[in-house]
Amino acid sequence: MARFEKVPDIVIGRLPVYLRALTRLASEGQEITSSQQLGKMLGVSSAQIRKDLSYFGEFGKQGMGYNIAHLQEQLSAILKVDREWEVVVVGAGPLAEALIREDPFAGKGFRIVALFDSRPERIGQRLAGMEILDSAQLPEVVRQRGLKVAILAVPAAEAQQVADTLVAAGIKAILSYASTTLSVPPEVRLQYNDAAAQLQRMAYYLQ
Amino acid sequence: MARFEKVPDIVIGRLPVYLRALTRLASEGQEITSSQQLGKMLGVSSAQIRKDLSYFGEFGKQGMGYNIAHLQEQLSAILKVDREWEVVVVGAGPLAEALIREDPFAGKGFRIVALFDSRPERIGQRLAGMEILDSAQLPEVVRQRGLKVAILAVPAAEAQQVADTLVAAGIKAILSYASTTLSVPPEVRLQYNDAAAQLQRMAYYLQ
DNA sequence: CCATCTTTGTCAATACTTGCACAAAAGCCT
DNA sequence: AGGCTTTTGTGCAAGTATTGACAAAGATGG
Question: Which residue of A has its CA nearest to B95?
């Protein structure tokens, strides 16, 4: 398949899932896998996995399957997580604390390096060992460190304003935990992490 | 449109988003909206919104648009969140604490009613005011209260085992924060809340 | 009360996504 | 060495999803 055509975003969205499955297999000591095994693990068809991968190159060997370590490297490079992106978190609440303490990004290409809050009584305190900085300094820090990725964990009422500040400071990807719809320019990627919406989606099928 | 054909899951997945947007408009005091306004807010086409809604009935008035309060009620009923589902959380870590403290499900159809952990030193303690129960009691409590919805916030290594226990006890919807692929029977809904995967998806577009 | 404007609900066309099926490639076994 | 088995990568067909367009319905204003 041509290497230069535009890859559908839906395919990009599945790559992290494949990567996670590969990590799991690797941790179990396996060295080789097949599209069939991956498909069974993930509940998707083997053809889909082969087709998704074929957008980026040929990573398998016929008759053999895929070398897990090699495929991990390739997918990491494609997703640009073969490096460590520095991430800023805005909003020093319980959620920020959970993210810092549990560090779900460890080994996945991201590291939290700065934490901001606008509440005067929180500024200067520490949260899970990380100093809470004044939101007023946010643009300066983001620009100086060249940060591109932000996590938004502020109340819904402030989310849009903070998002605007982040965008103005040069942030290019925002993961928002605020339960409100945001508006950002088209060159900025935005994802919502909305647990309530996920539960609601499942509730439809209950009973 | 026929009321009884199967509704695509992708449509179901957008309903919570519409609901969230309506909540926002309502909180701003607006009483009427249109598919065009909603579409602009959410970055989708107005035709898509009209088509999605048409799977379930006719909720608007030509020339006028939609009554926000009425549409909220209808969508809540469709998603079955016009009631309050009791939710069990397994894994009394920082993430559970954040969920209990920030209560992102308030007014959205879900309420956390029980919290479990398997670590002996945590059992009996309180987390954000909620008692930590022994995982050994989990099946009993789930069955007695007839719980259908669970949130999984345990380490990846234990996630599959806990999921199996939940399913055996009668849970029908699982929201997993564990960064591992799970396997559940087809009648159980499963969603992953994987912030690392969301960031990785956006990273592809960086630079 | 009529003309004009707005907006819905839906059909049909377009665009996108998935899955089937198979040739080709590669290892394995005798 | 050759036949057998496995599994990839991909062309094509089938299946889904999105969008454009418009008749019909309803509001508004003179």
Answer: A98
